[in-house]
Every structure is written in C-alpha cells, then in structure tokens.
Amino acid sequence: MDELISLSNATLDQLNVERPLYDRAALKPGIVHIGVGNFHRAHQAWYLHRLMQAGKALDWAIIGAGVRPYDAAMRDKLLAQDCLTTLIELDPENVSAEVVGSMIDYLPIEDGNASLIRQMADPAIRIVAMTVTESGYYVDPVTKGFNAAHPDLVHDAAHPDAPRTAFGAMVAALRLRRDAGLGPFTGLSCDNLQGNGNILRQTVVSLAAMSDPNLASWIDTNATFPNSMVDCIAPATGPKELALAADFGIKDAAVVTHEAYRQWVIEDNFCAGRPDWDEVGATFSDDVHAFETMKIRILNAGHQVIANVGEILGMETIAECMAHPGILAFFDKVQRTEIAVTVDPVPGRTPAQYVDLIVKRFSNPRIIDTTRRVAFDGSARHTGFVLPIVRDQLAAGRSVDGLALVEALWARMCAGTREDGTDIEANDPIWAELTLVAHAAKERPRAWLEQSKIYGDLASSETFSDTFHKWLSMIWVQGCEAALSEYAEVAREEASA
User: Which parts of the sequence belong to the Mannitol dehydrogenase N-terminal domain (predicted)?
Assistant: First the structure.
C-alpha cells in the first residue's frame, strides 16, 4: 500500500480528491463557530467551502472555538492539519471524498474564555454560530424558560469578564463591542431546537440581564438571532472512518463521513451581513418553523422511535434497526399515523414524502450511525422531539398508542441492561437518576411519567398513562419484540375498523 499523505496545506496538491481551489492564506475571518463537531464540518463549513470554491465569501472564513475541556482534543487534531477536513460522502451507490478548507484557525480552550471573547469582539467577526447540542442552551425542558438558577449561569453573572459558558463569552464580547461603539454580531444557532434562534436570544439576553440590564436591552434591540433548520447525518468518527480516509490515500485524524443529503433553511435576519449560502443550496425563508417542524418531528423524533429499542435488542446502528422487520413496521406506522399528521407540508414536499425520504436515509447501510449516539441525551431529546407530538395528539383526540410505546421503550432502555443481559453504559447527563426511576417503574410504571421535569403533567392524562403502563408492563414480561408485534396488530385492527 502506498504511503498515506498527511493532510495539510503543503500536501493539498498531492491529493487525488477534490480540494480547495482558493488561496487559503488569503482568507479572512468572518465567523466564529462554537462547537466544532462532525456535523458542523459536514454542514455549515461545507456550504461556506462551496462558496469559496466559486471565488466568493473569502472574507467569511471560520474560526473554530469550544468552551469545554474535551474540545481541546479536536482543536489539537485540526490545528495539526491546518484546520482541513476530509469529508467522505456515503451514498448507497457510491463513496466519494473532498477536502474542505473554510476553517482557518481554532481558538485555545481556556478558563475564562479570554481568547474567545477577544475574537468575537473583533469587528471582522459578523456571525457567531454554534452547535452545542439541544440540551446546551440552559432551557427548562418543560416550561422552555431560561434556567437562571443553573450553577454555570450563576457563575457567569457573578464573573462576566471570565465566563464559563459560550453564552457568557458572547455577552462579554457584545459588551466590548458596545463599549467600543461597534455594532453587534449575529448569533446563529445550528442545533435541532424548535425556534433555535429565539432560544439563543432568550439565553443570551437573559444572561446579560443578570449582570447588566442595559447591555441586555442593547443586545435585544440591536443583535439578531435568526432561526434555522439544519439537516445532514454525520456519524461519529472511529477506526472505520479513519480507514475510509486511508482508502483515498489520506491520513486525516478528524475525517468526517456523511450521507448524500443536506438541507439548511435559514431566516434571513443578519444584522452584520452574511454569506450568500443560498447560491450553494441553502434556503432563506420567512417560514423556517414549517421546515423545522417537519424535520424535528419526523427525523429527530423518528430517531428516538428506533434508537432505544435498537439499544435494548443489541443493534449497533440505525441501519440495522431499519433492517429489523418489527422495528421498521413500528417506525413506519408511528410516523404515518401519529407523527406526520401533526406536520404541515412545505414547498415541494408533503409529510408523507418526507417520511419516505427518512426511511431511505435511515436505511443506508453505508452510514454507520450508532444507536448509542442517536439515543444519547434522551432526557433532552424525548422532551424536545417526542413529547410535543404526544401533547398535540392528545389535544386533537388522536391516538398516542405508538408514542406511548416509544416512551416505554426509553424507560426500559434506561434500566441499563439489554435483553441479552449485557450492560448499557451511561448515556445521558442524568443517567443515574433515570436508571433509578426506570427500575422503580418496572413495578410501578407510572413512576416514570411522574418525572415532572421531563413529562410535565402528562402523567395526569389517563389515555397516555394507561397506554404507557400497558406497554411497559408487556415489555418487561414478554420483551420488546412482543410489544412491537402487538402494536402492529393493534394498528392493523384500527386501520381495518
């Protein structure tokens, strides 16, 4: 085997894949992105790279950033290869690769976030974007209000010049910009949250108000926080992904694999300008809500429909789950009878067509998207993705039979063991608490729904509570596959009634 080419600016012309055509040394920063994971590099960084390939947006380069100690490992990997990333597209019919170069630096990870604050205060930075996970915005999962009592936020309010959080750093940078007579930057959330821009505004403005109400008012009046919907499956990187890069002759410590599908719908509300992302496939729309509702409910909630049962049955990937006849039938029926009915069509696509698309995407065997990754942080994902659908179905007097089974499967997974007796490793920020309740729910299923910070008042719904009780009891006595089979039979009876 030929010797691998280590990815760097100096070796770009030696690669046999598509690579940056622009002069990376001439790029100028315009965006700070906080949370440089695989998704960001396969999605937002790619859109910007495509513009740069056309000779545009050369003053909008990305500077990466992070606020958690674990971000340092990614920083080291990317800086060692000049912030380049190999993207490998895994289409069912073909595998292709390209190297993207829209990121030009990665800030130090440090206590107090001084470098990050200083960079965001630079007038050249016109957008601060982020992918910090759905649970990272300090929002109460039930009320959706700002969680001012969180220790991180209490710390940042008391130490506004040396904050602990990304949002505290944004507030500190916006204070410097205001005091220097500069305008604000746009805050752009790229996380899977309904109204993510509104939530980001709430977090930043509310945190600022805890230490400087006048600054909070200035931010609220002058800064913009557009809502956006993002979509592209980009699995975690492991040995298999590193080997795929090697198949293309490239040594890349931070390679990213992704599906052959991307979507980005953005509210056109940028106070300091923006790249023309629409020229390379993004959509600017005044109705981001409709697009994000379709995606969050059918794709993101759909992930939770199958990941928990897949974990219980020992299936490693989402594609394996979709290849299981019982899980596929469960997924399809829940989607078409209880989820898609809560979603409106968007230009060019009906909910039923989107379900068809998601079945195809989830079934792609080349995408090694693990059930563990998808099931991670269920306390945020079920609260954000699944339970709003339950509430809508109950309000409309429609069935929640399948959705109650989804929640029962999550409760069973959180007990921490698979049906074959192997352990499920901790996979949620409150895993110990969830496991304790899951074991109590084995004998008294209602205990699971009494977690009010997750379920609110749903335990008081007899329709939902009784159905959940039925499914969880069956799962513990007869197993998951029996419950899936029973649900399919009930669904068939209802369809023929």
Answer: 30-278
How far is Cα 45 from Cα 34, in angstroms, rounded to an integer? 12
Residue 497: pLDDT over 60? no
Helix (H) or strand (E) holding 151: helix 151-158
Stretch (H or E) spanning 5: strand 5-6
At the second CATH level, the architecture of 289-496 is: Orthogonal Bundle (1.10)
**Could you report the per-residue pLDDT of 190-221, keeping only the tens digit for each?**
998 889 999 999 999 999 999 999 999 999 99
Is 340 within 8 Å of 293 (Cβ atoms)? no
Give the contacts of 220 (CB within 8 A, at least 6 positions apart): 201, 205
Phi, psi of 374 (to 5 degrees): -70, -35
Residue 285 · residue 293 · CB < 8 Å: no
- Per the CB < 8 A criterion, the answer to whether 327 and 306 are in contact is yes
| Token digits of residue 100 | 């993207």
Enumerate long-range contacts of 54-57, CB under 8 Å, 24 or more apart: 54/279, 54/280, 55/22, 56/275, 56/276, 56/279, 57/30, 57/275, 57/276
pLDDT value of residue 492: 61
Kindly state the percentage of the chain with pLDDT values over 90.
95
Which residues make Cβ contacts (< 8 Å) with residue 129, sequence separation at least 6? Answer: 31, 32, 33, 34, 44, 187, 188, 189, 190
| pLDDT for the residue 489 | 82
Rounded to 5 degrees, what are φ and ψ at 317?
-125, 160
Q: Under a CB-based contact definition with an 8 Å cutoff, are residues 201 and 174 in contact? A: no
Measured CA to CA, the distance from residue 458 to residue 112 in angstroms comes to 41
Report whether CATH 3.40.50.720 matches the domain 5-285: yes
Tens digits of residue pLDDT in 350-401? 999 999 999 999 999 999 999 999 999 999 999 999 999 999 999 999 999 9
- Positive or negative, the CA dihedral 294, 295, 297, 303 is positive
- Give CATH 3.40.50.720 domain extents, the chain: 5-285
The single-letter code of the amino acid at 83 is C
Q: Which residues in 298-373 belong to E strands, given as ranges? A: none
Task: Outline which parts of the chain fall under CATH 1.10.1040.10.
Answer: 289-496
Q: Stretch 236-245: mean pLDDT, rounded?
A: 94
Tell me the pLDDT tens digit for each residue of 28-86. Answer: 999 999 999 999 999 999 999 999 999 999 999 999 999 999 999 999 999 999 999 99
What average pLDDT does the chain have? 96
